[in-house]
Amino acid sequence: MDTLHGGPVVVGIDGSEPALRAVRWAAVEAGRRGVGLRLVAVVGWTGVTPVGVAPLGAEYERQALLRLAEHAVVEAADVARGVDGTVAVDRQVRDGSAAVVLVEESEHAALLVVGNRGRGGFAGLLLGSVGVDVAARAACPVVVVRGDVLSRGPVVVGVDAEHSDAALGLAFEEAARYGAALVAVHAWSETTLDPFLVPFLDWDAIRADEEAVVGQALAPWTAKFPEVEVRPVVVRDNAAGALVRAAQGAVLVVAGTRGRGALRGALLGSVSQALLHHAPCPVAVVRPEGQR
């Protein structure tokens, strides 16, 4: 499996400073990948005049929102060119629901990037609504740019026995691009065990089993990326907390998600959601390959 999708790096734009931070991060990423950068602003126009605003006509309102969106993508393009003038920049303003449009854009993207919060204006890229929806449903990996974007630390990835292969693929690719080490975190806890059995368990044997899980998950990727320094971390801890702590000083933290369920929270899972809201660095969420 190769998580490197074809197409450009797509960024959701809403005119906010977090969106411009996402553009700066994405411009560097597009340059590293050797692909274009596509800036997309979504005008979620409904034709309803907000309370307290004099009715100026539906078409006038729509045109005003379109001008705001055009200004936002022009500003974002200038920011991107200031980061890397060699990256080809494409600007798009589209009507519709921000989440729906960005998921559509992800079908042809190498990566979809959003800020960790927005102004809730013409695009409404506010994490907790659009950002989480997109991370749960996109056809390509999604990066939510938050925290420290200037770190030169490692790439951090969560490892489990069933749902981390796609995340490992992206994490190894990013570590290779950045020339960074990869910290592979596997957290396990006795909370899922029968409490009556806990005092009698052989914790050394359990830890050895958990380390074997990590070794098996990493083996195909270390063979494919021998240049990447890998630092396995096996801890008896809550997975979300362990990853948030490991991400201190990281350049990126990568999480897989089950990609199942009808509800947004079920699609993402508690670990991915915790990272999106609390990680100290940019967060990449990767769905299983067969469920994109």
The computed structural class is alpha/beta
Question: How many strand segments?
Answer: 10
Count of domains: 2
Give the biggest sheet. 10 strands, mixed
Helix content: 40-55%
Residues in β-strands, percent? 15-25%
User: Could you tell me the mean pLDDT?
Assistant: 83
Instruction: List low-pLDDT spans.
Output: 121-128, 259-267
Domain UspA: 8-146, 154-287
Family: Belongs to the universal stress protein A family.
Organism: Pseudonocardia oroxyli
Protein name: Nucleotide-binding universal stress protein, UspA family
Task: Describe the fold and architecture.
There is one protein chain. The chain is an alpha/beta fold. The chain has 2 domains: 137 residues, 3-Layer(aba) Sandwich (Rossmann fold); 132 residues, Rossmann fold. The protein contains 9 helices and 10 strands. Strands 3-2-1-4-5-10-9-6-7-8 form a 10-stranded mixed β-sheet, sandwiched between helices. Helix 1 packs across helix 2. The two termini are 13 Å apart. About 6% of the residues have low confidence. This is Nucleotide-binding universal stress protein, UspA family. Belongs to the universal stress protein A family. Pfam families: Usp (PF00582).
